[in-house]
Every structure is written in structure tokens, then in C-alpha cells.
Amino acid sequence: MTTTVTEPGTANGTTPVRAPQRARHWGEHLFVVPAVVFVLATVLYPLVFNVDLSFRDVGVAQIVTGGAEWVGWENYADQLGRDEFWHALVISLLYTGLAVVVAFALGMALAVYFNQRFPGRNVMRSLLLLAWILPTVVSANVWRWMLDGSYGLVNALLEAVGLVDGDLFWLARPVPALFAVVIATAWSFTPFIMILLLAGLQGIPDTLYEAAKIDGAGAWRRFTSVTMPLLKPVNLTALLLCFISTFKTFDTVFLMTRGGPGEATMILPIYAYNEAFEFFRFDTGAVATTLMLVVPLGLSVFYFRSLRREEAA
Amino acid sequence: MGTTGGRSVAAWTARAAGVLAAAALLTACGSGSDDETSGDGDGGSTTLSLWHYYGTPDTPTGAALQGLLDRYEEEHDGVTIEARHIPFGDFTRTLLQSAAGGDLPDIALINGFTTQALADAGVIQDLSDRVEEWGESDAYFETGWETTQVDGATYAIPHVADAYAVYYNETMLAEAGLEPPATWAEMQEHATALSDGERYGLAFSGIEGDEGATALVIRLLAAGGDPAEIDSEAGVTALTQFADMIAGGAVSTGVLTWNEEDVKNQFANGQAAMMINSATYLSVLTEENPELQWNVALLPTDAQASTFLSQENLAISTSTENADAAWDVIAWMQRPEVLAEYLPERNKLAARDDVDTGDDPVRAIFAEQLQQAWAPEGDLAAASSEVLTRIQGALQAAAGGGASVEDALAEAQGQIDEALANVE
């Protein structure tokens, strides 16, 4: 589901490193055209189409034959007045927030651990990456089986140590189900965070730790006073990336619970999917996905702002 | 690498990563589309495309359909049918997307309950004239034929039908000295008596979504209820009993996470003494679990005898250039002698009454059960997916979510009323 596109034209302008003179030939711009066309066709067009859809009355007939009527903000008013929408937003934020916290805590712990030198480090690190590489359809179904009440591994373990009595169907109960999808999501994001943080950790020179040690700082103090401040930009990046990816996660939750039981794990992407493709209300589905963009976009603005502050400081 | 260098590198990576994240976020909004060339005439030969959700040719259900298509090709020189399998969950969505892109197949094998929606959307064409000329509509049982009707016109013809009945483990019932239940009160008593902590008395699918509503709808119909009016006396009776059976351990809480295949597995493994399921699993159970002693009985009845219809219809797309050839295929598939060979392979029942499918007693029970099948009609048909999803929601809320039966039904009723009001 996740498509990450690396665009030469979008990352850092088009400045060639060795361009000697200021005057540029128009021909240089030609090289950017494929990238621009690609972005316009695959990113901008669907986005604009979706926003346009959200302002029209689009049912099952209009999606095929066209001719959808323009209704202005009516769809938005309708969605914002629906308890189900707000419920999905709250669940989305809860799910994303919890998953990010868990994934970040685990990722940080693993990064600090793997930042030390010990035999077998690289093998272990590569193995951990498997969780990130594994296709979601595989991992989500494995989680579903592990959490099953009658033959699931998790239940069997908990029963063996006496924490649970009888069959506990994790995905059939609201709170355990939410907990389960959070853990499954955090599990797959942890290695990703670990890699990002590890890269940051390796950029911190050893001399700083040595100096701190001479000043009498213990391990915890070195972590809070040297590691964390210097890691701040990387932390921000990791948190933001993880939040955005988790916020738009569809596959893990859909495969594990389909938004159930009841509406306990009904996150916004599944809500939007149901509106459009289960109940054929393409307009309100479009409204939900458009509104879904607001949270990550807001976060991105906040992120770039704080990045600029960080650089200015 | 110096301190400042490290920091600026980190900042740069962070910024680049931010851009990537934004790109990933935006591309996630894009939707995929399919490229599929539809069949067209080629000199003296015709190529027809047919989309279905039965499975790829290496699955038992997909192989049965492919065998049927092969037989048609053998009997008809110059006609080639290209079948494409699309998974059930994606089927209707893919049809709608392809229709928007002007890229439909000639023939679509659709879920009976989606006939109205696809007709409303202009995906499938009106077959009324052809059906009248054909003159075989009287052979079909009423509920099944009704699913092909949209505003008085015929938009499809039935392909196969199926119904839900009770599979029971003969060994377990004999040990307990029980006969298959005749009423729902007996069903609860039996299920309670047959559960022992290790195994459960009854299993059915109660999974999230419309699929998980089937059993509760069956129970509701037995109590004389109407699925559009779930917040009713019959609704209370049905949901209270299901919630009691789950709370009392006669039915596993796991039903809320099981699809029909999972339910079949529970039954096949001896984890459930009875299950409510369709005829789909008849030969699978026989082949995969030859030692299992089981039989099939009619569903219990209370106020009325009723089951849930499961049916596929054959339809011709609005954009086909081979409507005549397509009609010939779907009408040929409904010939009694063709169905007689195909239905046992496919583990399905005939939607018409002139097919001789042998004297298998189990199939006879399903055929009898089918006569009492219920299917949504009118506005309820148009909104069936949403209404059934809400009914499952009520089951979930009362059986797993801690809501009272009354609250669960009231909540679901509100959503059902809204869904029905939205039907245009």
C-alpha cells in the first residue's frame, strides 16, 4: 500500500552541483519534465479529482455515467454532523498516537542497543528489519491467527502462565481489538524507527560522550543530556513519518478486524473505504479522505516550522 | 564527521524525508485502475470476456466454472470465453471502476444482491425482451427470480442458488441422545448441552461486515421479523437468544471473528457440534474429513420457516458489442442438462425447478430449504450491504461489546433507517 516516490525534481530543486554559471539554458528544464508529468498525473490529478468529487452528489449511477451535480459544502456539513465520522477520527488519533508511542519507545531502545558494538550485531539488525519488509497481508493474517481465541498462540501463552482463563478472542472484544491492532502496527514500524534513529545516533561523535563521562555523567544522564538533544531533528522526522504512515494505514487494520468489532477499530481510512466501496457513497467517501489529509498536512507544517527554528538556533 | 556537520546532515535528511513523506501521503490517495481488453469480433470467431469471483481455475469452485466454460466452447465453434477471476471483496468495486473507465467485460457473474445496484449504476443491461422471448422465467423459484428484477425489468438471470441449513455432527448428537433441533428454543438447549468447554454447541459466521449478519437474519426471520425493522419484538427475541448463547458458552465468542470458511473449519475439527452454513462446503467436508460423521437438517422454525438466500446472477454489460453471443452463453448455462452436470461439481443448487441433480439426500434437504429462502427486495435490496452490516453491528454490540440488547437494536435501527432513506 505504501508507495514512496523519490523524485529528483521535488527533493532539492534541480540545482546541479557543478553548475558553474548563473545563466541557464531553457533546455535544462526539459530534464525535469518527466518527473513533473509523473507527479502531476499520479499525485496532483487524483488529489484534485478526489476533492472535486467531495463537492458533488456522487452515487453509484454518477460514478459510471458521470453528470454529478455540484452541491458545494453540503457533503462536508453532512459528514461533520455525523457521529460516525467523529468516532472514526477519534479512533484514528487514538490508534495512531498509541502505535507511534509504542513503536518509538521500542525503536529508540533498539537503536541505542544496536548502536553498541557486539558480535552478531549486523545479523540481528537485519533480522529485525524483516518485520518492516514483510508484506502486511502476511503479517496481519499471522497476527490474526496468533490472537485467535481457540487456536491462537497468544492466548495459549497467556493461559499457560495463568493470566487468562478460557478462550479470549482478542479481535472480538472492543478494547483488546484496539490494543491488538496497535501492537501489530507498532511491531511493523519499530524497525523502521530503529533504522532512522540509529543513523542519527551514529552521527553523534564519541568525543561528546567521553567528555560527558569525564564530567561524571551516568548512562541515563548521557542519554538525556547528550543523545536526546542531538537526536532531536531525527526524532522529529521519525515521529512525523511514523505518524503519517500510521494515520493512513489501512491494510493492517482492515485485514485484522475490518474496523470491528462494532466500530472499535473503525479508523478513518476504513470508514472512507466503507462509505465509497461498501455503501457506494463516493461523495462522502471523498469528503472523508479529503478531511483525512488535514491532520498529516497540519503536522507537516508544524514539522517544517520547527525544523526551521532548529536550524536558526 | 564533526558536530555541526552531523547536525546539518541530519537536518537535511530530515527535510528530504519530510518531502518523501508528503509524496507518499499524496500518492496514497491515488487509486489504481485496471487494464483489461474486452472481447471483440475477429472475423468468424468471437471472443467473450466473463468476470466472476468463484476462484482461479486451480481452486475447486473456479475449476467447476472453467469446466462449464470449456464445455460451451467445445459445443460452439468459433467462440472463445476468457474468464477473469476477481476476488469477492473487490468484485463490485472493480466492476464500477471499470464501468467508469468504459472497460467492462461482456458477461459478469454477479452476487444476486448487487443486481439492483449494478442496474441502477448502468453497468448491466436490461434483458427483459430477451427473457420474454426465452420464455423460461416461470421455471425459477420466486425469491431467486425476484433478485433479477429492477423496477419491473429483468437485468439478469439466475446462475446458481444456495441456502443456509444446519450441519450437525452425528456422532456428537448421538452421544448426547439428541435429534437436530426443530425450534430455536431447542437449538439453544441442544447447543448448551453439546458444549463442554472444549467444544461449542453451535457455530456460525458473525464476522464484521454484511457476511456476519446471515445467522442473525435467519433467527430474526424465524421469529417472524423483518430485517428492515430490527428494533422490534422479533429483533429482541433473536438478539437476546444469540447474546445468551454466546454469554453462556453454547456459542463461542469467536463467531464474531469467523467467516464462513472458518466456521466450516471449526465444524470439521470437531470444535463445534453444529453449524449454520451453505451447501458450498458439502464436498469439501467429505473430501477433507472423510472420517467425520455429519448430516444436514433444515433450520429450526418458530413463527415461520425461512433461510437466507445466496445467489449468483448472470448479467450482460451495457458496453458489450457482443450482446447476442453473451446471451447465448448465459442461456446455455441455464439449460437443465448443463446444470445437472455443473451443480454437483460446484456444490450449488438450481434456481429453477426442472433440473435433475440426482437423489442425494443432503442436496435434497438444501433444495427443500431453498424454497423458504429470503432475499432483500426494493429499497432494502439497494441498501442491503449497509443494512446487513448494521445488523452485524447489533450482534457485535450485544454479544461482544457489552451493550444491552435494546440499545444495540435501537442504534442499529437508526443506522438502517438512515441507509434506507439514502436510497435514491
Walk me through what this model shows.
The complex is a heterodimer of chains A (313) and B (424). Chain A has one domain (83-312): MetI-like fold, CATH 1.10.3720.10. Helix content of chain A is 71%, strand content 1%. Chain A is built from 15 helices and 2 strands. Chain A has helices spanning 8-11, 27-30, 33-54, 60-65, 74-80, 83-114, 121-133, 136-146, 153-160, 174-202, 206-214, 219-247, 251-256, 268-278, 282-312; strands spanning 56-57, 69-70. Chain A has a two-stranded antiparallel ribbon. In chain A, α10 crosses α12 and α14 (268-278) packs antiparallel against α15 (282-312). Residues 1-13 of chain A have low confidence and may be disordered. With 424 residues, chain B is an alpha/beta fold. Chain B has 2 domains: 41-162 and 310-374, D-Maltodextrin-Binding Protein, domain 2 (3-Layer(aba) Sandwich); 163-309 and 377-421, Periplasmic binding protein-like II (D-Maltodextrin-Binding Protein, domain 2), CATH 3.40.190.10. Helix content of chain B is 47%, strand content 16%. Chain B has 18 helices and 12 strands. In chain B, strands 1, 2, 3, 4, 7, 8, 9, 10, 11 and 12 form a 10-stranded mixed β-sheet that branches. In chain B, α2 (60-75) links the parallel β2 (45-52) and β3. In chain B, α2 runs antiparallel to α14 (336-346). Residues 1-7 and 18-43 of chain B have low confidence and may be disordered. At the A-B interface, α3, α4, α10, α12 and α14 of A face α1, α3 and α17 of B.
